[in-house]
Amino acid sequence: MPDASRPILVATRGSALALAQAHAVLAQCRAAFPRLRFELKIIKTTGDKLQTASLAQSGRSLPKGLFTKELEVALLKGRADLAVHSLKDLPTELPAGLKLGAVTRRADVRDVLVYRDGAYFASLAQRPAEEWVPGQAALRGWGPNLRLTDLPAGAVIGTSSTRRQAQLRALHPGLKFVELRGNVPTRLEKLATRDSLDATVLALAGLSRLNFQITAEGRLVGDAVPEGLRAVILPLELMLPCVGQGAVGLEIRADDERMEAICAQLNHYNTFQAVTAERALLRAMGGGCQSPVAAYAEAEGDRLRLRAISFVEGVRRAEAVGSIKEPVPLGETVAARLKEPTGCTG
Question: What is the pTM of this model?
Answer without folding.
Answer: 0.89
